[in-house]
Amino acid sequence: MIDTSRILCIGAGYVGGPTMAVVAAKCPHIRVDVVDINEARIAAWNSAELPIYEPGLDEVVRAARGRNLFFSTDIAGGIRDADIIFVSVNTPTKTFGQGAGYAADLQHWEKTARQILAHATRDKIVVEKSTLPVRTAQAMERILDGNPAGVRFDVVSNPEFLAEGSAIADLERPDRVLIGGHDTPAGRAARRIIADIYATWVPRERIIESNLWSAELSKLTANAFLAQRISSINSISALCEVTGADVDEVAYAIGTDSRVGPRFLKASVGFGGSCFKKDILNLVYICRSHGLGEVADYWESVVAINEWQQSRFVRNMLASMFNTVAGKRIALFGFAFKADTGDTRESAAIGVARQLLAERAVVVITDPKALGSVREELPEEGDRIECEIDPYRAARGAHAIAVMTEWRIYRDLDYARIFASMEKPAFVFDGRNILDHKRLHEIGFNVYALGKAPLRHV
Ligand code: UDX
Fold first, then answer.
1. What is the number of structural domains in the chain?
2. What pLDDT digit, counting tens, does each position of 143-202 carry?
3. N or C: which end of the chain has fewer CB within 10 A?
4. 285 near 99, Cβ under 8 Å?
5. Residues with beta carbon inside 6 Å of ligand 1?
6. 0.70 exceeded by pTM
7. 351 and 297, same structural domain?
8. Residue with CA closest to ligand 1 atom 7
9. Which pLDDT band holds residue 381 (cuts at 50, 70, 90)?
């Protein structure tokens, strides 16, 4: 019999932490332990200053921590005491060996499987939460099946669809929860146990059960489809700029077709985040390994357009600023990969900063939550970048402002005051199309937005 009154989660990152906090808050009858090898991260989860910024997270953690939510580094003890183990360790893109640059690096995943094997003394359900290549569960099962103690393990795939910045809302009211398991009596029973936990707060019709491989592949496919929408609209933004069409009008017109839908059609300097690029490359690798070269090329082009959009943005800056930015101060508004998060992984701002520095610009970065990782993301640049929390001070003496992240605060700044403090002619490059371009033009700025005709004075 599986004891359903305790859950263990291995991995206290962006997925494991918020997911388990919501499970604990919604299910006071279940004890939830979250463990991680990183002591500093666990100490932060136990402190007033949580290791990640996520709207609403503080309240949820505060409500459950110490009651039925516990953070610790005792991985062995956690495995021994819980029969349901969520595995949420990171699976970054491999940087070495076969599949380097594409395949997922499964070393943390495999280490975790071996730890479970070493410390388990009774039957357990192992839930894959990390995004994994299709058929990883099989590898997991092979490792677990090698156990001498006769312990039974059922592997279930429960991919996470939460987006950073809206993680708590996504967890509390998910579009769907996907649970994949083997189509055997034991597999179906394991699937049902996990479904019952979610059913405490998610309507049953939103809990989808499928076979293991469908669940694993659905996660990669969902992210590939979402990223493909952004690359599609970004490719059209370039066409708008040369034809006089307006990309926001085009996005609105196509999004009102109910077969397309309005969301995820906002042109940008490029998508970022820990998932999209990684998952697409993973999909590409899987397709190539199965001899499906055309399918691999099709999905890889989504990543190629994203990189092209970033470089195109910098090329446009250069061309409009008289073909040189050398020695010019340029303020980047935003460094996070999107608003409402401090996460900078794969942020478009990194590539833009790097290309501007290569043109010898003086780059000043401002961001309300993400300045802490500027040095880490751009280690080679040392003191050629300035970090400045106050956007007014960041823009002082600058030739140009480039909006990288759609933080709400950037909409509401006093741009007349900013204009007065900048070098002239002053430029704004809106990489998120969030500013009031007409008003900025009236103030005196030369305004370049994505997928729109420029509003110039020079
Ligand atoms: C994504 C998926 O949404 C989530 O379901 C999955 O589990 C993990 O990956 P996340 O990376 O947190 O979540 O962010 P998301 O909101 O999807 O945004 C990704 C990137 O696309 C951001 O850089 C965002 O700014 C950009 N974006 C999004 C656009 O450029 N245009 C849009 O219309 C939407």
1. 2
2. 888 777 789 999 999 999 999 999 999 999 999 999 999 999 999 999 999 999 999 999
3. N
4. yes
5. 160-164, 223, 226, 230, 264-266, 268, 271-273, 275-276, 337-338
6. yes
7. yes
8. 161
9. confident
